[in-house]
Amino acid sequence: MDPLVLARIQFAATTIFHFFFVPMSIGLVFMIAVMETMYVVKGKEVYKTMAKFWGKLFLINFAVGVVTGILQEFQFGMNWSDYSRFVGDVFGAPLAIEALAAFFLESTFMGLWIFGWERLSKKVHLLCIWLVSFGTTLSALWILAANSFMQHPVGFEINNGRAEMNDFFALIANGQLWVEFPHTVLGALATGSFLICGISAYKMLKKKDYAFFKNSFKIAVIVALSSSFLTAIFGHQQAQYLVETQPMKMAASEGLWGKSGDPAPWTVVAAIDPKTKENKYEIKIPYLLSFLSYSKLNGEVKGMNELQAEYTQKYGEGNYIPPVRTTFWSFRIMVAAGSLMILFAAYGLYLWMRKKMDRPNKGYLRLMLFGISLPYIANTSGWIMTEFGRQPWTVFGLMTTADSVSPNVTAGQLLFSIIAFCAIYTVLAVVMVFLWVKVIKQGPYAKDHSDDEHSTDPFGKEGYHAVS
Amino acid sequence: MLSLNELWFILVAVLFIGFFFLEGFDFGVGMATGILAKNDTERRVLINAIGPFWDGNEVWLLTAGGAIFAAFPNWYATMFSGYYTPLVVLLLALIARGVAFEFRGKVQDDRWKKTWDVCIFIGSLLPPFLLGVVFAGFMKGLPIDGQMEMRAGLFDMVNWYTLVGGITVTVLCFVHGLLFTVLRTEGDIQNRARKLAKQMLYPLAALLALTGIATYLATDIFEAHGAVLSVLALLGLAAFLLAGYFLSRKRDGWAFGMTGAVIALAIVGVFAGLFPNVMISSIDTAFNLTIHNAASGHYSLKVMTIVAVSLLPFVLGYQIWSYFVFHKRVHEKSHLEY
Lengths: 468, 338
Description:
The structure holds two protein chains of two kinds. By secondary structure, chain A is mainly alpha-helical.
């Protein structure tokens, strides 16, 4: 098999898997920080129990996110060494800063948070979880700065056959970053809050610890609605940026071969045939593509055929059209999942405001249990659209994926690593789900077995209270 | 005046010293869970002794990787693609080890715990061994061609010299971890850790001596840096002897510091021996990767220097603080998280 194909399969598989856990971590830790803040401010034990219960789920998830992240950093050198040589000067910097500024922060304060409940004062302990939250977000910022460079390269010049950084601030001020970062982080908050909503809904359906989960639901549904709504807003911003910087990705995600006409209609569904370069059948909504692209009701959007001709002139012979069907459908799946998220959360808040949550509304609670899957669908399809839509480029306009792969890594080595990573990732996924179900079933007031088989330290805080 | 290329070479060395000093002991404690601990409670005590730290320690490796990517992209590309298969194994080990800490205590079942205990043991044993093999390979030289591509067969990577390097690093981490165990525990397990550490000093001495002689015989790095390396070797010998002395006097903190010094001196030795190369080509010395031909441009190095110099003090500050917060010894009656 072709090493390029294998390297792409491995990158896609390991990155998608890693990105199941990252948004969940960013979102959950934020929610936990909010809960612990309420504990510190209001002093009610129930909020501490909340932070600890959701914290347990978070830690299982965080562990998988962290260990799969190590591979992400090494993979650029292992599978994409020519890419690393070409852009290391620019791309390596945000990656190194991510480790230095964010990984140290989140891992150190995570340790302090887990082990520090009895050793640190309430306020310092609270500060720890906020620093973890800040660290995870900062990590997203730097990795997306690196990704934004791939989507829209800025702040560099080509010297001696490689990209060299000449303006670090341009890299940070990259317009792509400032639409991609809020969109991704808000999507992560939505992921975490929908998860809490869904699990709370499940427990409310089972009528277990009703008051506890009703409260968790309440806090989460507010974040769920505001973050999914804002994610959509920034998604819209991102689409407009796309028209300017990567028109081919835009055209592919619309299945648009020829000119769109002015005003441009939006294609809801289409039967795309990449061979004949036409759509057999399509349903369109007038004006909508113009609005998506320019925030006004007129304006034309370029099609793939026209862009292909432009790119051939600019970059030489080649196929510059990405996998159209994947890009088209992943975009629609993302938008559909996102829209459902806004509706589900809005309805939840409506029920809440009308004080209808005191008795289980079975239909809605089941819907919210299903709702856990929506952010995952949206996150994954969003990234598939972003990364497939950029093909054949690794760095848009500068370097193709075919040129990026390691020339000295054989298909056999790649096959070995794909099988090994997929096997271990499958085990991780199974174990994680198993542990989650176990923790959820036990509920927030389960006896903490980690304290089994020992009496309290007579000189510790607990012992003092036990005696006095 | 130090050039930025030299500064970044030193910074990478510093990150690896931080990594082997810190994660070195938690690898060692991980090995001790399979060798020293008699039962589940003792294993839990050991794991909790490194509980708050191991994740932060591992970041030193990630940061070293990131720093090499940013400052020496060609080094990063050559090393990571050339050592493909060993790195896959390293990653699998680190993945299994990382989740095992979190997972093992979540289910009260013997078979469940045993499975994750195996992951912790192997996951703590393999990384120092593999990294020892990789670093020894750097010094001995690897088939790197004119395009900076390393095309190494199994025996280029694994041979008697690199095996000696791998085993030495592993045993050094083990002893370092035993001394950390002495510092962080009390009672029976502490006594046994101290006793085992004392016994392990003899094989460790033999391995360190063997590595020194083998390096002299198998590599040519003594030709360029003989004087510096001899001084480092003498300092290492002194630190090693002091470790034994402090251990017998029960000055545990000092003993731990001395095995840490041996680790640090060994890394300094590797980097001083390589300088100004970062990887040596066994095909032609003209193909060596150096701190110049492997490096990023001046602007990039300057930016990274400003970032690193302003962030590192904070990182060191809060990491030291976290060790201070958890300075109390762990014993069977403490709150055990994992």
